[in-house]
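Please produce the structure of this protein holding magnesium ion.
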Amino acid sequence: MTYQDPSTLSPGTKVDQYVISGVLGRGGFGITYLVHDESLQKDFALKEFFPEDLVVREGTSIRFTAKPHSESDYRWGLKKFYDEARLLAQFSHSNIVSVRRVFEENNSAYMLLDFVRGSTLEKWLQGLDSPPTQEELDLIATPLLSALELVHANRTWHLDISPDNVMIRATDGAPILLDFGASRFEIKQHSQLVSALVFKSGYSAPEQYTSNADRYGPWTDIYAFAATLHRAMSGQRPIEATSRQLSDELRPAAVIGKGRYRDKFLKAVDWALKLPPQDRPRSISEWRKELLQGGAAPAPMARTRVLTGGTRVLESPLPFSSARPSAKPAWPFGLDGPSTSIAAVGGLCLLLIVGVGVDQFAPDLRLNPVTYVKAAGRYFAGGGSSALCGANTACWGVVVEKNGGVFARVNEPSKEEAESGAMNLCAQKVGPGGCRVISVLSKKECWALAEVPSNPADWRGANGATLEDAKTSAKTTCETNYGFCRVGMTFCADGSSRVGGTD
Ligand SMILES: Nc1ncnc2c1ncn2[C@@H]1O[C@H](COP(=O)(O)OP(=O)(O)O)[C@@H](O)[C@H]1O
Ligand SMILES: [Mg+2]
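Below is the modeled complex.
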């Protein structure tokens, strides 16, 4: 909470069922509050539509000022506010803030968002005692590029990427993209509206200062993202595009960061900061190849960095976190429409494969572990109980993760076999490199995954000595991070108790 002024709702005020705790931030179009939902005992961020030039606060309600057109402008703005909420609701990505609902009250509209505990990237940068390292920038850029790629796959541009619109989550250091207030569906672009947008000097691409919205594209967000990286490295907001057009005095990243950051990374930032749109990368994937190591590989999931009081702590990665834009299998079961191709862009899906011999499955084959178990000839059929998992025999399962996709090999006689099976499966399905073991199960041990029902991109998994233990532990870990979660998937080392997952 940064400040309190008379035009904001004061702490203790109730809006619907949410009690205001304070103000998180304020822009020309709205005020974002920290609120508490007493029934759920949970904090949220509540964004109030409050176009300060058009309205004044009266009690808790708002009223139009006497300015001409204020009511029609207000209606237009309100529609834009709803557009923002609807747009956000389309995306399910662990690095894009989740919207829960939008509603009207107090003669205004409110958007309920998941509260991201942490600080904005701007504040985070300000709190560092030295410029961020290459590794830190990679950890921020990688998941954000994946988030932006999903946005762009919807033919939508964010148009307001800046260090103020990215939160660094305190619990795990994941960057979360906020504030889609300026974003536009390509088809909805209306040139007359463009000038009404509020641009952040230094981060907006030059084409955003013209009324020709036809020139917007992925390269517009790429400019803003590069400007954000430039600010991170230089410690200063970049020179505004319009003044660069008159005389370009922006110091190239290649000069500012020489020796401290990868040459290729610096070059990629400078490429993305070219003034003519056509000179910049055309797509996130084109840019990523230069910006990030590992080039064309799908973006890794959000890694875990925690900032505490200005000190940078690089924690060992959390067990895992996921970015799963769609519950629908995106791969390897074929792409059959826009929603699956969006998911495929992120390269992220939850994929559970159990049993022996599944490596050869064809894309159209529905996995049936029992069938495979039988075919392998070493196990019982019948949903999981296994001869090899008796009192005197071993029974192993290994769970591997990459980019939010989960691969499991269970019902194996040794840990090594289970591990190599799961690793091979992962490598085969989503490419080598980056597959890592997140859980090892022996005998009757089980694994469970709990997810946020409205946003299955947010999940946590855990193993346990019993199915119940695993479920409880996954639910608790998930709820500690995200609030209410439900168990979405389970299985045990012996192949039993398999629920959920994508075949
Ligand atoms: N979900 C959220 N969790 C935590 N803080 C938030 C959240 N949404 C917004 N904020 C804070 O409020 C500020 C303003 O929100 P934002 O969505 O960027 O609106 P605008 O810039 O249009 O006023 C952000 O910079 C951030 O500090
Ligand atoms: Mg903002």
